[in-house]
Design brief:
Helix content is about 40%, strand content about 20%. It is an alpha+beta fold. It has one domain: Beta-lactamase (3-Layer(aba) Sandwich), CATH 3.40.710.10.
């Protein structure tokens, strides 16, 4: 063989040797997998779920109210703390005035002059004004809400509807829609019964809680007048007016931000309260369809339970 053939032979020999070594290694590796048992993989058990029973007592557990509907609504969190038929649509009576004042302040400035018309002074009592007397909107609103004046509410509704070029019920319906009050509508600004079968305004306890909270936030200087035993204002002509609050409980409610009463034959006794359960923590209490006197005892019980709830106790 020449040198070239010897080189080829050597190369083939090396290739066979390398192939043989590779075969032996592969065989040994396969043997390991076939004969050495694999350690089974144990599944990881899920972590146990710990369920802790709440130790906070239910302050509303024993509450019973005479009202057809009631709610305690946390305005700061949107949480319903207590509810009884809270979505039922019922006659509002003078709680309708909350909507009237709210829409007026959304359209007119607090300084807008409101003149009392002949039609307004001929509404049913309670009344306080004479034809032609003029007040700044903020002043007549304070008197109207505190003493639940029907002539004042009518004058405010007339002026606001005229500014918007709408009927009063269309104006009030627009305001309710804007606030998302799906159960609320009114045909007049005072809430007076239209007939023995038709109320001047309808709504749910839930809607009224949100409305009362919205008004207290929008016009705190007006709402605060409803927390005093009386309200005072002077007309543009210099006549001084002092009216008494229709809610006798205002001096007893801590942190009171707004109070509004309502009563008609169709509605029975209604009451809307907004109070501060803590620093900047408003809570609304609304009762609808109670009696003239029980609306106050109903609300008192719900306010006491609310304060106990935030104190973390069953009762105070």
């Amino acid at each position: 063989m020449d040198s070239a053939d010897l080189q080829k032979l050597a190369k083939r020999t090396r290739s066979k040797r390398e192939a043989g070594v590779a075969l032996v290694f592969t065989t040994l590796l396969l043997g390991v997998f076939l004969f050495v048992p694999l350690t089974p993989v144990r599944p990881i058990a899920p972590a146990p779920v710990v369920v802790t029973a709440s130790s906070t007592p239910n302050a509303f557990a024993t509450i019973s109210v005479d009202a057809q509907a009631a709610i305690v609504y946390d305005l700061a969190t949107g949480e319903t703390l207590y509810a009884k038929n809270a979505n039922a649509q019922l006659p509002l009576a003078s709680l309708t005035k909350l909507l009237t004042v709210y829409v007026a302040l959304s359209v007119l400035s607090p300084e807008t002059p409101i003149t009392v018309s002949a039609q307004a002074v001929h509404t049913d009592s309670p009344r306080a004004f004479n034809v032609g007397q003029t007040f700044a909107l903020a002043d007549i609103a304070r008197l109207t809400l505190t003493a639940s004046l029907n002539d004042g509410a009518s004058a405010i509704a007339e002026a606001t509807a005229e500014r918007q070029n709408l009927s009063q019920n269309a104006m009030l319906a627009s305001a309710a829609t804007g606030l998302g009050l799906s159960q609320t509508y009114a045909v007049n600004g005072s809430g007076l019964d239209v007939s023995t079968a038709v109320s001047g305004g309808y709504g749910s306890a839930r809607d009224l809680a949100r409305l009362a909270g919205a008004l207290a936030a929008k016009a705190p200087a007006i709402a605060v007048a409803t927390t005093e035993s009386s309200a005072h204002a002077v007309s543009a002509g210099g006549t001084s007016f002092t009216v008494k609050n229709t809610d006798p409980m205002v001096a007893t409610i801590p942190g009171l931000l707004l109070s509004k009463t309502g009563f008609t034959d169709l509605a029975g006794g209604n009451l809307a309260i907004v109070f501060d359960a803590g620093i900047n923590h408003p809570v609304a209490v609304v009762v609808l369809g109670s009696s003239r006197n029980a609306r106050f005892t109903d609300s008192n019980a719900l306010i006491s339970a609310s304060l106990a709830h935030f104190a973390g106790v069953a009762s105070l």
